[in-house]
Amino acid sequence: MPKRRVLLVEDEQDIADLVSLHLQDLDVEVTHVANGNDAINAVDDSTPWSLVILDLRLPGVDGLEVCRHIRKNSEYTPVLILTSKSSELDRVLGLELGADDYMTKPFSILELMARVKALFRRASAMQVSVKTELPRLIESGDISIHLDEREVYINGQNVELTAKEFDLLLYLARHPNRVFSRGQLLDQVWGYGHHGYEHTVNSHINRLRSKIESNPALPQRVVTVRGVGYKLSPEDAR
Prior knowledge:
Radius of gyration: 19 Å
Helix content: 40-55%
CATH class of the largest domain: Alpha Beta
Shape: globular
Order of helices and strands: EHEHEHEHEHEEEEHHHEE
Number of helices: 8
Mean pLDDT: 86
Largest sheet: 5 strands, parallel
CATH architecture of the largest domain: 3-Layer(aba) Sandwich
């Protein structure tokens, strides 16, 4: 198995040295860059990264823009963001852009390593799922979801979704007509580390509806079950 590659984007050298030292104990190859411009260049490297640890406050391009750039790529890359306790808005925006986890500074290095391991396990499980899970095309009424290309079509027309919007729709489509609470969707689509950010689900549902509903104000596909949560309604139930 090839060595995991971690891109560490951190402008504070002391923190970068400490994190790099402990990541090497996990037998990973660490590449450190100290600004957002170099991070974007590294992300565009032809070799995929196993994980990006991303500080939000960076010289040049900020971490939010780097996260947005990562999520434009078809290759899924786990992202763990680092932020100060005072920048809750940036943390929320990072999660909404598709970050998988976050930690606030100052942080425990032991907890950071535990979260890195959890993200590695999750990524490995996703790779196994991709190799073994069928079908590679999911259809729900007039919605077609192509897993390999990560593309969505409605009545044959391509719909541009962000990475997390795609993941959210895919999860709902795999369980048609089943109602999920915001907390359940956070656990299943966003994963570990997002508790307390249920409004993230709301904003993604709203953006998803704006792209797949004929009338987002009166949704027919992704519907709200009052007091419970959301579900994807099969066409024959609309």
